[in-house]
Fold:
Amino acid sequence: MKTLIEQFNSLSLQEKEYAILPLGQHSFVVKTKNKTIWLDPFLTDLEERNVPVLCRADEVCVADIITGSHDHADHIDRAALPDMVKAAKDAVFVFPRAVNVGEVPAERTSALNDSETIELDGVKITAVASAHELLETDSDGNFTALGFVIECDGIKFYHSGDCCIYEGLQTKLKALAPYDFAFLPINGRDAVRYKANCIGNMTYQEAVDLAGALDISLTIPAHFDMFTFNSTDPTLFADYFSAKYPGREYSIPIPGKIIRGTAR
Structure:
């Protein structure tokens, strides 16, 4: 019997069709006709996880791009990276330039900063600075947290990484629109978590309003299901989204359940 990731890899897609495999937290696998892209894969088995590991790091055999948006373990999973490097022999890893990820050979790494674009064998990636909770840079002015706008096979999508709203974010994203789908965090932030060094994200209301301001065909909320201390109820997002932007599409991701769609 095929494993979950084997089933996903075996999907046959036509031009402009896509499939998304949610893995929990901000981890997704996106498959298009010709490419497979792993977004912030968090594959280490920790006791505090509410979502079990659905794919082992040594099963990441089919991958063209693997992203890590910022240097937190649930986004750049350093413990899992050595096995991913071995398994995903053809993958290029994309990280913020401000983050030194020694677990990945330099020749297989592409480093980006805000507003920079690279093209990797038919995949175009543009970096957009993320505020988590603040916009932070290293001594060279490189942002420590990024989101990525990715284009391939006639499909364009945005993965924000961990991000709060900041002045100019909407302008940057509008300039890169439209989007066939986008992943936005909704777990919010508060003083209790901040004091415990649990850095926050958009609230579900902020994520809904950002999605409403942009040309996004399908909005997928994220970063709400993995840790009890850093969570929110996604039905709050769904209710607010439906009330404020009727007719716009969203999908609440269920780990392990594939989302399929077609680009506009």
In short: The chain has one domain: 4-262. The two ends are 34 Å apart (CA to CA). The helical segments are 4-9, 81-87, 169-176, 191-195, 204-213, 234-244. The mean pLDDT is 97.
